[in-house]
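Review form for a predicted model. The reviewer records the input and the model, then writes brief findings.
Reviewer: anonymous (R2)
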Amino acid sequence: MLIVEPRAADAEALSKERVTPMIRDTLILRDKFYEAKSRDSANTTLQKKFRGGHVTFTGAISPSGLAMRPVRDLACDEVDRYELSAGREGDPVDLAMMRTENFWNRKVLLCSTPTIEGASRIAAAYAASDQRYFFLPCPYCEFEQRLTWDRIQWPKEEPEAAVLICQQCEKSIPHHKKSEMLEHGRWIAQNPESKVPGFHLSRLYSPVRSWGYLAKSWLLAQDNQERRKVFTNTVLAETWKESGDAPDWEKLKARAESYRIGTVPTRKALFLTTFVDVQKDRLEVFWWAWGRKAHSWLIDHQVIDGDTSDEPVWELLSQVVRRPYMHPSGLEMLPIKIGVDAGYETTMAYRWCRRMGIQNHYPVFGKQTGQVIFWRGEPQDLRTRRGKTIKRGLRAWFTNTSRVKSDFYGWLNTESEESYGRVHMPQMPDHWLQQLTAEHLVTTVRKGYQHSEWQMVPGRERNEALDGRVGCQGLAEHVGLSSFSERDWLALESFYGVDKLQPEAEPEQPVQETSGAVIQAAAVQLPAQPVQPAQQPAQQQVDNGFRGRGRVRFRFSS
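Model under review:
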């Protein structure tokens, strides 16, 4: 028998941590396997011999381990985590299955947690099987049904009270009835024409995990796409569809909201982030506001024309980003964090951030990979004599652009006004919306390995609006968009006096047809002041934090 794990280290760990203890502690198995001795090659970590056969462990990335001997029984574990090719010799599952072709009574087992839709080996194998699901009888009407997440319901704010709703009688089935149902369950094939048996079982059937526990896990996953992916794959045993396609820009145009660019339209907007996209002949500046449930509002977009390798355009940028926006409470809003694209004019970006204050002005590089969304790089400032870095000097920062784009496009595709990540925008020019939806996720195979990367949609030439949004969203995540506690949100709302304002009415401003101003660097003058919403309450203007050179008046709880 051959057992194939994704990596050789996984195969070794399986043998040491699970199989060896099982043989040692099970009398009937201990008597069949040869005793392990230091000089006895009959029983090693990766091969266990018994009278009449052996169990061999190998990694899917090893061509020699997959092709070295014929086997009758083959078990491929976690096949969705295999590389596309074992070295340069092709698909590891195909290579392993070829070792069984000489046996008329061979048995091949493929098992795995599913991963990405369209790239899942186990999903493709299951689709070609007879597709068996485990059907359980209702304890009240005896109607047989498979357990699906859409039938799990719970009272508001009480996920631990989750129950299963019967498809036939609509009665609520509590978790303690599950054991009785499992005793009388049976496998039913949905594709009986296939000669290959296939079995699907989600964690909904687990006797040790209640539906209430899973409901709480589902609620915790709603604020984070990576957690939703884990829940879909590991709890529901379903493939995850990547949000790699933006909606049509025409749909975004149709759902534009009636507020003017350059204004903060709602008291729900609680903090600002700003990102500067650097081109050869201009700086494009984007402001986005953020609120609960990761709702966001496009506040402004301005273009500063000028040679970005020279100082005048950066001097004007310094004035532009200091301009406050008026919150409906009557208080001024300044961006909490400001990021500058450092991938083009790196030296100028570094110099500008040093001059403005490195506490909240970040030179940012985009990366297609990363463990987190936004992280700090190495210090960039050196001491003149010994060349040592200044610990509190300027640092480079990085954004996982692939993950942010996937999250953002998923949010753009949401239809509900109350859904997590809802994106709000005023009416913008067609070319701006085309920039915002200018990329899509493309999966390619290079040197036998599968790679997913973001590429421009054919026919699109510019993506500055998307880059600006990605930069602002990365900064917002760094501030705490996905990790704020209820206490943090309440503190922000209290700061702006949101709880003291009258109920918010629908905005009545006329729609503005163009985006933010285009500013000539040679003029070195401030753009027009932002339009203030009508009937602002008379309150003293208060510094909302991070204003000036790193001065902080408002702090978030940790």
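Findings: The two ends are 53 Å apart (CA to CA).
Further findings: Confidence is low (pLDDT under 50) at residues 506-515, 522-558.
Recommendation: see findings above.
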